[in-house]
Design a protein that fits this description.
With 68 residues, the protein is of the alpha+beta class. The chain has a single domain, classed as Alpha-Beta Plaits (2-Layer Sandwich), CATH 3.30.70. The protein is built from two helices and three strands. The chain has a three-stranded antiparallel beta sheet with strand order 1-3-2, covered by helices on one side. Strand 2 and strand 3 form a beta hairpin. Helix 1 packs across helix 2. The longest helix is centred in the N-terminal third of the chain and has 12 residues. The protein is globular.
Amino acid sequence: MAEERFIVTNVKCGGCVSNIENGLGQMAGIESVSVDLATKQVLVNGAALDRGAIAAKLVALGYPEVKG
């Protein structure tokens, strides 16, 4: 299983966490999504992950990845 981590600093509440987990969880190949509100990290696990597609979905949901 592959794993990808993203940092999204505009995650501010439980609603944000739900939006991200539900939105990404509907994507093909994603088995689990967890969001840590304290660290602003999004952890995605799955068989064949497409980092670019996940990042694009985060943007579509209103949570762009912070690159650093």
